[in-house]
């Protein structure tokens, strides 16, 4: 809603342009520049969207200065300690915490959508065995639109709902199958008697030859990792999903686009990159060398798992993740894990260093998640697929919200063109 009493005035030459200001529930005011080009004939320039609100949303809020993250108003630390992943999925999708009956129905629906079309097994077999599981996931999730035609019509609310449930339910199955395929083990079918996180661990680590009992503490830690990554407002992969969806693309294609974007090391790929970095550092005595490299402008090296576009304070998810890392490693009897020791010492030394303090670089969620995942038995290549499983509900919730928004338009940024002015084609002999 525009605040009629306040307007931002932009002066270009002798002309004044009044721009409406919107007041959000929380966060900074927003200046509406949608009519600016029509009125003043100028564009705004904001590569990386550092000062641009790309949509109107009611799902997730981040106060980066205070280190606050809320979903539908509920703080992430409360959700991580008191709730669980599927309840958070319901909250993100429908806006309110479910009643007991609503939750039971939702969990039942998700549980009964976890199997994938049997023919998709053949599709997996087309990939090379050494494919990164994220490469397989991008392909398989995109291919879901070829297998589930009855939920690709975005104008039908019922189909939208089914597509949402299918994606949340099947993503762990697809990620686990991508992993099993990469290590040459048989696919493990989902089990309806296990909860979401336990079922995922079972599909990843069980083999037909032996019974595999999921440790409830590991299942709880897995559930917490899913919960902490469930949504994060308009990050790169979510914005990718929204942009893909703005053209009217089907939900499976949009989520495949989100997975592709998540893969990059500046985003979801950071958990893999962070653990690889901790291993490369290897021992605490080498930390100063790596900190020096991270500070060196001539060295492209960055401390992975450090820094965030929005958080200029502790990432609230990292605090919970650090505690989880201690619990899981303690349970597994590896509390003296050298990687954890390097991580803790690196965090300490970086936080005490004026370079990181001045630039407000703090550990982010990926700093500790890799340590937990590795202790659970996941190879580094599975870290980003786990993130993709968790984030699916966030992508879907934002996709649903966008489709319901009457102001939705195809996303079509403009540019600051600095190329050649128009010139005439020259025949090849004259060049
Ligand atoms: N190590 C060393 N220096 C850093 C780091 C880092 N991890 N992150 C930022 N800086 C410096 C950077 O060199 C720049 O310095 P200067 O102002 O002198 O040029 C300044 O801090 C600001 O960095 P930026 O790249 O302009 O900031 P950004 O908001 O565009 O980037 C980021 C945010 C997350 C991409 C970046 O901090 C980074 O590359 N971090 C490491 C990768 C990582 O952990 N990513 C996971 C993010 S959380 C999970 C997720 O969202 O998927």
UniProtKB/TrEMBL annotation:
Keywords for this protein: Acyltransferase, Transferase, Tricarboxylic acid cycle
Pfam entry (one): Citrate_synt
CDD domains (UniProt xref): EcCS_like
PROSITE patterns: CITRATE_SYNTHASE
Keyword Transferase in annotation: yes
Coiled-coil annotated spans: none
Catalytic activity: oxaloacetate + acetyl-CoA + H2O = citrate + CoA + H(+)
GO term, biological process aspect, one: tricarboxylic acid cycle
GO MF: citrate synthase activity
Protein's pathway: Carbohydrate metabolism; tricarboxylic acid cycle; isocitrate from oxaloacetate: step 1/2
InterPro entries in the cross-refs: Citrate_synth-like_lrg_a-sub (IPR016142), Citrate_synth-like_sm_a-sub (IPR016143), Citrate_synthase (IPR002020), Citrate_synthase_AS (IPR019810), Citrate_synthase_bac-typ (IPR024176), Citrate_synthase_sf (IPR036969), Citrate_synthase_typ-I (IPR010953)
PANTHER family hit by this protein: CITRATE SYNTHASE
Stated family: Belongs to the citrate synthase family.
Name this polypeptide is given: Citrate synthase
